[in-house]
């Protein structure tokens, strides 16, 4: 096990493409362990004396809070840097120098940046691990990992599942990353989106090479009954050429209690949050609606990552 | 004792009306204990591994800092969310979803919100305890509790005291809540305010039912000599119909060393802070001026609340 | 040793002028100790249960993060107050009342303020130690101490060194404070700056009284070969009467690999950061460029200060 952990210790977390199935097994086993410990109420001290710099160039309460909770639940400390206004960036410093500064104080740097590629750039400057917490239209690997972890938790395995992705699949960084992780397993992916917001062809071609089956649909009706996972994302008005184009399709992608009647009893309904109108609040009472459990799982997955990155040996 | 603690463990703290005298005894005994421990310099670890989300939709350095200090002094961690700009609220998420998200990461949520009723609303969404840290013109129960604790600390008991409230009693959330708590005891309340800013009739009627004596006055002279507690609040220019109305009365409600000469030697002068001109800085040297001790007591009362809410058994 | 420590325990840190050579020996020995402990990975708990209020009235990621990391690496907690917008200052409270409030919650207050003299003012209000983390054009003593510590670390001693300061020496708070600390030792100071930005006469006269040698130059060429330390600061366009004046001199004060060829092999190149164009990024690879090590040393020096201020006895 220790040998395999070498894929985590002191490493950067930049892209979902860096993970093998063996890595994911290690990570999820660790997440399971932390979940049990946290739920038992026992304090954890494995990262006592360690510091995480939480460098957010754009606001993200959910992700930022998740990392801060995760680090402290492991016994570690944190440096909150929440806003470009509160930063020497306002004096014109470049990202590399900011990263080189923060690595002097901390053991790991979590970076959220509005521009694609900046997380990778940060790794060039840093001798300490960088965790990409979202780089614009690039990646947000810990979101995809927590989504995958939630699916595995619900079904015990990731093999043989049908995952239906709904909403804006063209611009959704979240579904792109999740699809890439799912392609490591024997899954079928359904893409339900208005034509102008379908999954990018290049990504579909890449996924095809891994041998998984992918189907495109314009409405949920056709596939909901055969879905193990229904993964919903937001459709933003701004993505359409005209308001009438938007009005014409929007209702087909809103999840209601009626629509959920067609979904299998043991399916799960996911959403990366925040959600607006695309899932009706009355659906929250449906036990298949597990988007808030997703949030909690995010903390356990981030605890697992932080502990694997910062400890040479498992204990 | 443990049975009585069931009024705290896993409960929400929304309103002063939820407390019995027995609850307050429990709470203040716990606050006494933490005060002694903190002053002895001994580290406390009872909340190790626990996380408090500090969700402030409007700035409040004093209250926010007090909770953050309290939680850490108990060994716990915190998630600072200080500003609506730094929040997924800016993406349009509603309060319920934000609360449901934060409860996944934390063991207790402290909420300051500009709108009355939002703290109660938050409790509907959350399975974890909510502490109302001020909801607009609604309540700010921990402020009232720290005020009450300060009075008990000064006199050893809350029975038989005369408390004189001065300033804007119409709009002062602080004095409304404190008056309601004091009505649990055998006290006399004097209200000293310009007529347009007197205590609301509905509140006076409610308090009358509890059997306490209430008197209204327009100047402090009449009652200061018989006051055990002089509780001063701010009078804001904006509350008056005209500037001349304000100018006509304002000096009658400013505490100076001269005015304090009429107050009993063993009385105490309180203020919820921040204060502007309504207490002259030269009064700070008067040993009866205990508004900064009030601030410190706030930390002990919040430590007591946090530890009672989060621990099933006292230790 | 304990007697000498009385110059730290419960004291304020306001100005470099408050330190004797004996104080600095104590401080740097403690910083050495913390550096070893941190690098060994062992958690430190000497400040468990203690709280540091980090009150920043203007943004400074570097300094703020350094103190937050330092306090937590010692086992203590912190209250982050990052911005005047997030503060009861916006309700008009004066600094003295804010300080008196924060001292109720915390064991030490770190203050960054845009106006000279405010740190000293804060000490009048506070019974808890104040650390000046920069007060406008006044002082920034922990920056000077970390600079001095970095020099001592590089050469084993502070005696007999030649320190060349480059850039805007007129307005640079950093070089003023460092020069005052260096004057405690047998050093030679070279000032390399455009004439309009030379070291202030009053400071030169003050330093002359301590017996150190000071020389002014307009280019680096004349002195670089004889420098043990080259300390570079920013030159801001805005400081010149005209853009042409600036253009005429700016290149003489930019450090490039070519210029570094003239510097001694065992010299060190320092900068308080953030740097803009005054040190070319390709210089970063030069082992003599130690400005990021400076940053790290800042954390150890601040750990030393915090632990000496807050503990009555050394352990």
Quickly describe the structure:
3 copies of one chain form a homotrimer. By secondary structure, the first copy, chain A, is an alpha/beta fold.
Report what the structure shows.
Three copies of one chain form a homotrimer. Chain A is α/β, with parallel strands linked by helices. Chain A folds into two domains: 2-139 and 297-310, 3-Layer(aba) Sandwich (Rossmann fold), CATH 3.40.50; 142-295, Aspartate/ornithine carbamoyltransferase (Rossmann fold, 3-Layer(aba) Sandwich). Chain A contains twelve helices and nine strands. Chain A has helices at 2-5, 21-40, 61-73, 95-105, 118-125, 141-155, 173-182, 201-208, 221-224, 243-249, 257-260, 291-310, and strands spanning 51-56, 77-81, 108-113, 130-135, 162-166, 188-192, 213-217, 229-232, 268-270. A five-stranded parallel beta sheet of chain A has the order 7-6-5-8-9. A four-stranded parallel beta sheet of chain A has the order 2-1-3-4, with helices on both faces. In chain A, helix 7 links the parallel strand 5 (162-166) and strand 6. In chain A, helix 3 packs across helix 12, helix 4 (95-105) crosses helix 5 (118-125) and helix 6 crosses helix 12 (291-310). Chain A is globular. The N and C termini of chain A lie close together (11 Å).
CATH superfamily of the largest domain in chain A: Aspartate/ornithine carbamoyltransferase
Radius of gyration of chain A: 20 Å
SS-based structural class of chain A? alpha/beta
**If you average the pLDDT of chain A, what whole number results?**
92
Largest sheet of chain A: 5 strands, parallel
Greatest interface by residues involved = A-B, 29 and 29 residues
In the sheet with the most strands of chain A, the strands line up as 7-6-5-8-9
Tally of separate domains of chain A: 2
Order of helices and strands of chain A: HHEHEHEHEHEHEHEHEHHEH
Overall spatial form of chain A: globular
């Amino acid at each position: 096990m220790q040998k395999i952990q070498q894929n985590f210790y002191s490493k950067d977390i930049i892209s979902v493409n860096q993970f093998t199935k063996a890595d994911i097994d290690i990570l999820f086993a660790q997440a399971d362990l932390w979940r049990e410990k946290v739920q038992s109420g026992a304090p954890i001290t494995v990262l006592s004396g360690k510091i995480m710099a939480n460098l957010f160039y754009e606001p993200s309460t959910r992700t930022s809070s998740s990392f801060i909770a995760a680090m402290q639940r492991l016994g570690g400390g944190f440096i909150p840097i929440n806003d470009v206004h509160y930063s020497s960036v306002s004096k014109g410093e470049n990202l590399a120098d900011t990263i080189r500064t923060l690595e002097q104080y901390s053991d790991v740097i979590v970076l959220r940046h509005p521009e694609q590629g900046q997380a990778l750039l940060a790794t060039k400057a840093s001798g300490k691990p960088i965790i990409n917490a979202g780089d614009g239209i690039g990646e947000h690997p810990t979101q995809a990992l927590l989504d995958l972890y939630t699916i595995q938790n619900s079904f015990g395995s990731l093999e043989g599942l049908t995952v239906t992705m709904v909403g804006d699949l063209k611009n959704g960084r979240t579904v792109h990353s999740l699809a890439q992780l799912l392609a490591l397993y024997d899954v079928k992916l359904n893409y339900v989106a208005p034509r102008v917001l379908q999954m990018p062809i290049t990504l579909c071609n890449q996924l095809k090479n891994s041998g998984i089956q992918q189907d495109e649909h314009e409405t949920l009706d056709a596939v909901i009954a055969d879905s193990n996972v229904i993964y919903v994302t937001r459709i933003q008005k701004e993505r359409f050429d005209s308001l009438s184009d938007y009005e014409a399709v929007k209702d087909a992608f809103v999840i209601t209690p009626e629509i959920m009647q067609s979904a299998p009893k043991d399916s799960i309904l996911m959403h990366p949050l925040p959600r607006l109108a695309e899932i009706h609040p009355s659906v929250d009472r449906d036990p298949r609606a597990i988007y808030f459990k997703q949030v909690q799982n995010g903390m356990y997955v981030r605890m697992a990552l932080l502990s694997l990155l910062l400890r040479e040996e498992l204990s």
